[in-house]
Specification:
By secondary structure, this protein is of the alpha/beta class. Helices cover about 40% and strands about 15% of the residues. The chain has one domain: Aldolase class I (TIM Barrel, Alpha-Beta Barrel), CATH 3.20.20.70.
């Protein structure tokens, strides 16, 4: 098996179960629910240890599956992660279990977890409405993950409006639909339908640009985490007032290359002295130049600095919720599939799945090759 053991990891993921309470036809993971897998605490520690032995600067870990909230030792796995000084735990979820288990949601929030919720249409269904009522009550940070095809891409405007109107939502990750796992073509007819339904990075950008009157465009996005430009790009927004949907892309008031340099080792913005220096430098640059929104932006950034880096240190959760008040993010993650798989992109990938024995592989290699093998069970 080729692996990425020598490649820097900007965003590690770990599959903690293959069990799921949904059966989505577009899932890019090949389901093997007849062979139940729940990672043990010992195996979890081993994989984490191998990761940190190679890279001590890991600041986040993404739990995925399957449906991670079905793991009976989920809270223990989070505690082990935190014991290893990993600041951010992100848990992918369809939200069904959590909508019916308020105690588990509260326990996740107490541990500073960021919830990555799958939402592929609006308005919210009854289960999602119930879950978001709880999320608002406990002020839990949320990322929305959405799978976009030519059939549903028009709902991106609604989703953006939903993010800017909801303080708890810190980001949207857009994933153009891919054809791997459960979604592999099974016939020539399937291939024709899939090619018609497939949308790419340019299609997503065009839809975002059209729905924002051009405010969001190719130039507002930047690279992050050392990812290939074809794989992952991100756009940051500064909200112009607390609780307001008014916003401006970072690219309108700062040098995107400087932002890319800040994000070169991670796709998750770590709140540290580098970020403080970056905000201060941006303030100095704005002072020296004229701009339509400069006074508003200056006041906003100064207020952010005061809240983030006050004399009383913030908890991890307080940092995330403070950032959510000032910054919003749209990321586009263009996974590869049976039509687009490219080994050169895989070799350069820094978004890795942690496997047993210290191996780590790119997400796209895992989805398209490793997990397709019938004998492989995570």
């Amino acid at each position: 098996m080729e692996n990425n053991n020598n490649q820097h990891t900007s965003f590690p993921l770990i599959y903690i179960t293959n069990q799921c309470n949904l059966n989505c036809s577009y899932c890019f993971i090949k389901k093997k629910t007849e062979n139940k897998f729940f990672i043990s605490k010992g195996e979890f520690r081993n994989r984490l240890s191998h990761l940190l032995n190679n890279d001590r600067n890991i600041s986040s870990l993404n739990f995925t599956g399957g449906e991670p909230t079905l793991h009976p030792q989920l809270l223990d796995l989070i505690d082990i992660t935190k014991e290893n000084n990993i600041e951010t735990v992100i848990i992918n979820s369809n939200g069904i279990e959590l909508s019916n288990n308020e105690q588990l949601l509260q326990e996740l929030n107490n541990r500073g977890v960021v919830l990555a919720l799958s939402i592929n249409s609006l308005p919210l269904n009854k289960s999602q409405e119930r879950l978001f009522a709880q999320i608002k009550k406990i002020k839990m940070p949320v990322i929305i993950i959405t799978v976009i095809s030519n059939q549903n891409k028009s709902f991106l405007k609604e989703l953006n409006d939903f993010m800017f109107a909801t303080p708890e939502i810190i980001a949207i990750e857009i994933q153009p639909i891919v054809f791997s796992g459960e979604n592999l073509p099974k016939s020539e007819e399937d291939k024709l339908l899939q090619q018609k339904n497939k949308c790419n990075y340019s299609d997503i950008i065009n839809e975002l640009s059209s729905s924002s009157s051009g405010k969001i465009n190719t130039n507002t996005f930047c690279m992050a985490g050392g990812c290939n430009k074809s794989c992952y790009q991100v756009c940051y927004f500064l909200t112009l007032e607390d609780g307001s949907s008014d916003n401006i892309p970072f690219s309108h008031f700062l040098d995107i290359k400087k932002l890319e340099n800040l994000l070169k080792n991670s796709i998750v913005l770590k709140i540290d002295s580098k970020v403080e220096d970056f905000i201060n430098e941006t303030i100095y640059d704005l002072w020296a130049n004229d701009g339509e929104y400069n006074e508003i932006i200056l006041a906003r950034l100064k207020k952010l600095l005061k809240e983030l880096f006050s004399e009383k240190p913030l908890t991890d959760k307080e940092k995330k919720m403070t950032i959510a008040k000032y910054f919003k993010t749209i990321g586009i993650h263009n996974y590869m599939d049976c039509y687009t798989y490219n080994q050169q992109r895989v070799a350069a990938c820094s978004r890795h799945i942690l496997l047993s024995g210290g191996k780590k592989v790119s997400v796209c290699m895992f989805n398209n090759i490793i997990n397709e093998k019938d004998e492989f069970i995570f």
